[in-house]
Design a protein that fits this description.
- The protein is α/β, with parallel strands linked by helices.
């Protein structure tokens, strides 16, 4: 079959031949891939850098996708570490890691939206007892996952959604998606007296030194430090290590948790996916994706990291 093939962790995948995959039992199914998104998770696994990377070459990248099996049903599926990826003509899926889609679903839209949407959906649904009316601060709101987080936080009932990011042009577009306030990360005070310092939940796609600085600012300006604040580490766009002083934890009712594969069980993820798919399929969220032929994977892989476009490959 034709596939995107990674032969070096330091090089983008190339379009070429790869052995046809074969199901190992009735719990698996061979599917024709219709669409596969290029996500940060996909890049991380393909470079060997992500904690869930299988670490062996050659490999076919792709963490999830949309396809059709011999039964004719349209499915969204997520691949476990070590499984053959989704950027290929065909792949083998685990049936219990897939869900059936409405027959009129757009494969490209679903494949482009599920991974970035899942990050904030699982964080707010599984990692914190989030309640309608609470306030949310999103760090890294101008990226694809942060963009979806703004919409999902509002959809789940947040009374205020404060979007923080570096790109002022992209920030300016977020009120149309549900952000009640926008704050540039260049603002050392996050806006003195701003509601950013009175939030209940932080969705952090940055981590690293950026998060430590923002955390210090939020805690310093917080009127009541005994009021609970849950800081959810979702991504590491600004670094994997955050040197958080112990005084932050002693001086405030601050809880820091992570959200991702492992901290959220596979069972919980599968329980949440149908509701998220339903909202994506009905057009609840604004999703901008660019369908691209898989044969162009090598060129687009490199270019997309600079343009910030949400790429979905179509075999």
């Amino acid at each position: 079959m034709k596939a995107a093939v990674v032969t070096s962790f330091n090089q983008p995948p190339r379009y070429g031949d790869f052995p046809d995959p074969t199901p190992n039992g009735p719990e698996e199914m061979l599917v024709e891939v219709l669409a596969a998104g290029l996500h940060h998770l996909t890049r991380g696994r393909a470079s060997g850098a992500h904690y869930s990377s299988a670490g062996s070459l050659p490999l076919v990248p792709g963490a999830d996708g949309v396809g059709r099996g011999a039964d004719g049903k349209l499915r969204y599926f997520a691949q476990s570490p070590g499984q053959i990826g989704t950027m290929a003509d065909k792949t083998v899926i685990e049936l219990d890691h897939s869900i059936e889609l409405p027959s009129d679903s757009d494969p490209v839209t679903v494949a482009g939206a599920m991974n970035p949407a899942m990050a904030s959906w699982l964080a707010l649904r599984c990692r914190v007892p989030f309640q309608r009316g609470q306030k949310v601060l999103i760090l890294g709101a101008t990226g694809s996952s942060g963009n979806m987080a703004v919409q999902i936080a509002r959809h789940l009932g947040a009374s205020q959604v404060i979007a923080a990011g570096r790109d002022e042009q992209r920030l300016a577009k977020l009120p149309a998606l549900g952000a009640t306030e926008i704050v540039t990360l260049k603002d050392a005070q996050l806006g003195v007296g701003a509601v950013a310092c009175e939030v209940d939940v932080v969705l952090d796609f940055l981590w690293g030194d950026s998060s430590v600085r923002v955390m210090e600012t939020v805690l310093r300006q917080r009127a009541d430090r005994s009021r609970p604040l849950t800081w959810i580490h979702v991504g590491s766009m600004a670094g994997e290590v955050a040197a958080i002083p112990g005084a932050f934890l002693r001086s405030a009712n601050l809880q820091i948790v992570g959200s991702g594969h492992g901290s959220v069980s596979g069972r919980d993820i599968l329980m949440e996916l149908p509701a998220l798919v339903k909202e994506i399929a009905r057009g609840t969220f604004r999703i901008d994706v660019k369908a691209t032929p898989l044969r162009d994977v090598e060129q687009v892989w490199s270019e997309a990291s600079h343009t910030g476009e949400r790429i979905v490959f179509t075999p």
